[in-house]
Amino acid sequence: MTHVITEACIDCIHRSCVKECPVDCIYEGARALYIQPDECIDCSACVPACPEDAIYHEEDLPEMLHQHLEDNKNFFAQALPGKSAPLQSPGGAKRIGRFGVDTLLVTSYPCRQPET
Amino acid sequence: MNSNTDASATPFARCLAESHRNTSSVRIAVVGAGPAGLYAVESLLEAAPEFRIDVFDRLPTPYGLVRYGVAPDNQKMKSVTRVLRNSFDNEALVRFIGNVCFGVDVRRADLLKFYDAVIYATGAPAERRLGILGEDLPGSYGAKEFIEWYNGHPDAAHYNFLLDKHHAAVIGAGNVALDVARMLVRGPEEIASTDVPDRVLAAFRSNKITDVHLIARRGPGQAKFTPVELRGLGDLLNADIVIRPEEIQLSDSDEIRIGANRELRMNIARLREWAVTPLQGKERRLHIRFLRSPARIIGEKHVEGIILEGNEQLPDGHLRGTGNFETLKVNMIFRAVGYRSLRLPDVPFDEAKSIIPNNQGRVLNGSGQVTDKEYVTGWAKRGPSGTIGTNRSDSAETVCTLLADIAARKVCNGNDPEQILIFLDNRRVNYTNWMNWLRLDDCETQLGRKQDRPRVKIPDLRSMLELSRNS
Q1: In this predicted model, what pLDDT tens digit does every residue of B73-132 receive, in sequence order?
Q2: Model pTM?
Q3: B389: which chain A residues are within 8 Å (Cβ-Cβ)?
Q4: Residue B209 in contact with residue B184, Cβ under 8 Å?
Q5: Does the beta-carbon distance from B392 to A12 stay under 8 Å?
Q6: Residue B152 carries which DSSP code?
Q7: Cα(first)–Cα(last) distance of chain B, in Å?
């Protein structure tokens, strides 16, 4: 089981979840955040932290957002464009910083103007 | 949208830069090796990696409530230790000084002498009481005793919870109450996959409980448990969940409030689903009751029951007793109505709020003035609320305050780090270090491997100390 960040995060990246995560397992791509499923300890602290309600426990994921479960995993399991190797499990987002690329799914979303 | 983070990073970065000027031997004491204390260490290391930090704990074990509070059937949550232990990678910088009791083995004045700053991260070790008749009858327990017992806390090593009664009540509607109720209805095979001490596993193997009643004073719209804890009840192998549909009906104002809160919506949806799920005839039942207040615990020499009064919720959200009473026949009662902090010897304390008075982590004295060199984080700072992760941001705030003060003070006492150890030796304090903990940790995980369990906890202090020192 893990938690999943879904489409409401794209082009928003509020990052309030990052501060709440006790294991620092929420990583930043370019346009969205991703949860490392093997590092997540299922505490759900991130869920109420997100002002966009973008984060779900795997079991609570609405059907229409289900593709994000696999997509979150892909962010770590696949070598993303411009990167030589997959991120895998770095053991903490802070030391990675902004990774600067996204998964195919997130990239496929049309750009949204962040609300001001 | 990101301006928030940037704005908070600026003063933080500034206080870091300034604190670097004179930090070669800045020495910090952290009192309490639970999540709040260890997240404070993490923040300190990140900002000022050359600081020398000593983390004290009353026990020879680190991790506080992660080890002794988080329920054993939630090993995934306990794996947060993977992150918390990182701070001790370099023992030259961060030392663990265990089995040292603040106020007894080392006092406030001693720490203030040896260190440039002290961070209290002592949590909330006491419990609130119900304040009703019969509360002290045998068979009526604080959740803390039970939790410490099943988690192998040395304070509970002499307890012996014979789970030989059929009916139990758990009073409270927070995560602690849910933990206790869930553990009571777990089957022996479920407990056998956890890290509980052998003695505790034996008690659960002969657990005679058939019915556990979880009693919530308020309605389902006000219950404090989080969806993740409530979800944990859904996978009970040996227990059906019983909910009376009439007790989870919501008032109009609740419906509106809940509509705006996804966590509450999820809780209510789950409760409603359980209320209409036919019982599967499992050997145990967990009854979740809402809008019931404990009025009195009855029994001659032992708990024989609890009298509950119905509550109704007024439009303004307040509760009113309905005057309708019912008696539940139970032989064990666990009160789980909240923790509270205790006054530390010689340290300011706000009795009304049960916290160490502070401003962004800076400890304030009785007249509201900042004390010199003293800080607080975690439950002792904000009260017993939030989850493990809440302590990360809470400790970051305290550390930022501390760094700004140290930068402004531009002094450090230049003490030799060995002095505190010499002081403890002279006082014949039997303190332990990180290596000692690693040995105990290794013993426990090896015991676990033999039984196909994640670990088997050693619950008594003497054995813990012996195993810590054997190489």
Answers
A1: 999 999 999 999 999 998 889 999 999 999 999 999 999 999 999 999 999 999 999 999
A2: 0.92
A3: 20-22, 43, 45-46
A4: yes
A5: no
A6: T
A7: 54
